[in-house]
Design a protein that fits this description.
The chain is an alpha/beta fold. It is built from 15 helices and seven strands.
Length: about 325
């Protein structure tokens, strides 16, 4: 566990009532656990939304103090070959649970990183050891899990947390750590984490190591993210037809804030919808933004591609096609 994950583990919820967001999922899972008869589960959704936390709560609710003896956790991104499924998983699955619950639980984190061959082997293991073992699989993209495994599981789709959910967690931690937060910190943390609660907690912890009185400027410094108003200035210059100033301001933002081109693209994509231009133009620019982002991921020079994107904004401001 890294130093930046200390608060994430320290304040990880241990009961269903402590989990924020995902209320519909919590209600259904809680009823299954109370009946002591959970099926195989597949948790799919973005990072930092509570998938691993909910898996741990399930196990602790089922087994109480003996949960460690009846629980196996594997991170499939580290151990994702067929040998892991054939050895570790199968050896654990074939033995009975030690408590009154008639099955053990195996949690496969990042299961979408398992190779196809490992998933095929896992399918047979899930089938053969249903009486003695239940599987909880966690993944970011359920489409990367083969259909035979999905059909054996009850699939729960997690969504990004809302601002009120992230703020609730941050308030809880700040009170226990005796931090003083300015009112705009909650909005800044939410924007920087984009609904990823783990990232929000880590940003708060990193900032708290500098000072106990925290404001949004400090969060932005730690997050190394561009301020929306800085990007807005760049786009306003471009739409007004001043391409040279827009380019210079963009370079200044990237160097001053020390941020990558892909981060700038994400900020531009958000700010497009706040611009005072026609909806049709916003749609065309958004399409162009996606094309530029793809070129960057393929290895193109970031600043050259961003200059090309600014040129599209200039043309849009002049009413020309992008």
């Amino acid at each position: 566990m890294g130093q930046s994950d200390i608060w994430t583990e320290k304040y990880r919820p241990s009961k269903f009532e402590e989990v924020v967001g995902q209320q519909e999922i919590l209600k259904r899972v809680k009823s299954l656990v109370q009946a002591l008869n959970i099926p195989h589960l597949l948790f799919a959704g973005p990072a930092g939304t509570g998938k691993s936390t909910l898996a741990l709560i399930i196990v602790k609710e089922l087994f109480g103090d003996a949960w460690r003896e009846n629980y196996l956790e594997l991170n499939a991104s580290d151990e994702r070959g067929i040998d892991v499924v054939r050895q570790k998983v199968k050896d654990f699955a074939r033995t009975k649970a030690l408590e009154n619950v008639p099955f053990k639980v195996i949690f496969l984190d990042e299961a979408d990183a398992l190779t196809r061959e490992a998933q095929q082997a896992l399918r047979r293991t899930m089938e053969n050891y249903t009486n003695t073992c239940r599987f909880i699989l966690s993944c970011n993209y359920s489409s990367n899990i083969i259909d035979p495994i999905q059909s054996r599981c009850v699939v729960f789709r997690f969504k990004l947390l809302e601002k009120k959910d992230v703020s609730e967690v941050i308030k809880r931690i700040s009170e226990k750590e005796k931090l003083t937060l300015s009112e705009d910190v909650f909005q800044t943390l939410y924007e920087s984490s984009e609904g990823d609660c783990r990232r929000a907690i880590n940003l708060l912890q990193a900032t708290a190591s500098i000072a106990m009185d925290i404001n949004s400027e400090m969060i932005n410094m730690i997050a190394a993210s561009a301020k929306p108003k800085g990007i807005r200035v760049v786009l306003d210059y471009a739409l007004s037809g001043d391409y040279v100033t827009a380019r210079d301001k963009l370079l200044e933002v990237m160097l001053k804030e020390s941020i990558s081109g892909t981060d700038v693209i994400r900020m531009i994509q958000k700010e497009v919808w706040n611009l005072q231009i026609e909806p049709e133009v916003k749609v065309r620019i958004t399409e162009k933004t996606g094309e530029i982002e793809f070129r960057m991921t393929e290895g193109s020079d970031e600043f050259v591609q961003l200059q090309a994107l600014l040129a599209s904004f200039v043309l849009a401001g002049q009413g020309k096609s992008t």
